[in-house]
Design a protein that fits this description.
Order of helices and strands: HHHHHHHHHHHHHHHHHHHH
Distance between the termini: 42 Å
Number of helices: 20
Largest sheet: none
Structural class: mainly alpha
Shape: globular
Helix content: over 70%
Mean pLDDT: 84
Strand content: under 5%
Length: 431
Amino acid sequence: MENVNFLILLLLGSFVLLVVMKIPVTMALVFSTAVTMIYCEIPLMTMVQRMAASVNSFSLLAIPFFILMGELMGEGGISKRLLSFANVCVGHLTGGLAHVNIVASMFFGGISGSPVADISSLGVLEIPMMEEAGYDREFATAVTVASACQGLIIPPSHNMVLYAMAAGGLSIGRLFWAGYVPGIMLGIIMMILCYFISLKRHYPKGDRVPFREALAVTKDAFFAIFAMVIIVGGVSCGMFTATESAAIACIYCFIVAKFIYKELKWSRIPKVLGSTVRTLAMVYPLIAAAGAFGYILAYLRIPALVTNMLLSISDNRVVVLLLVNLLLLILGCFMDLAPLVLIMTPILLPVVTQFGVDPIQFGIILMLNLGIGLLTPPVGTCLFAGCAVGKVSIEKTTKALLPLYVAMLVSLLLITFVPAVSMTLPNIVMP
């Protein structure tokens, strides 16, 4: 290819231009790929074949089940049980409701894997509760938004399924196990920060729940928490695949919400299914378009060029990994998570593997980087959802988030430079 630099400029330049013009990302990917293929004299049927091949994957069937499971949790009263159980665990500490908020998101993320679902389901309960107890509303909103991003790391996460596919078919079970320690570590770091903020601002602590009441709450929440055992336990023990576990857990959550908690009404099921289909209508075309875009990236050898460019700046492992993190943090401010997972994985994975980073570890690094992007303007999906639920301006919430950004960056550095944080559990359970 004689005009490779022009072709790269045509591909990436047209894509960026269309995104800036607020064309949907899926359409921008398709158009920039088609234009570049026409110039390269590659038949457009190749693009269609690549798009079809991208969505023709059994593993991708897990995505609709995980999304449906999150919708069922929100409608079926599971969220309230998780919040009550979190209050039993940590509500009596200084800044108790902030800790409850974070721990509830750990449990919710460990079942649904969706940060936006977390904010929508738990935020409407947590934010008014914290404000009534004496917390600033913007602080309550900031904690709700930041803690929701644990759902990207703590399994199950449909975004991890996307990454596994984009990385060439990684073990979803190993990815799931790799997320537990980093996700819990992130929550603990945020809880420590909230403890000192609560001391400084004299936020209240809750009363210790009496033993009998705590036992009743734990018993009531047992069926909700058991969904995590079904998903991760079943996959790691080899009883069923990630897709099968998602389907089984989805049926389980329906039974719990409808027949045990009895809060899911038949009249609400069309809304649940409609919301799931709307989400899938955005996800699957994006996967197809990213598959064709990834093909032309490989055709133009852009991953190798990016590797060489970063190595030309420095061959120091620390410097290169810091640059990769910085790049992902910046991109996360301007694009949504799923497109970036599909676009950047084939570009950056060859770079980090040259420096001894396991693809499983990089998956967790990628998720946390882009999770921080969900909290940052101008394209912060979780930030916007939290502000809408909390009825607080983006400016005030962003200011309240500043110390929580620090906590997330500390977690990111630990995950990046201490492989044992993410790799110990998968190496033990699924070697």
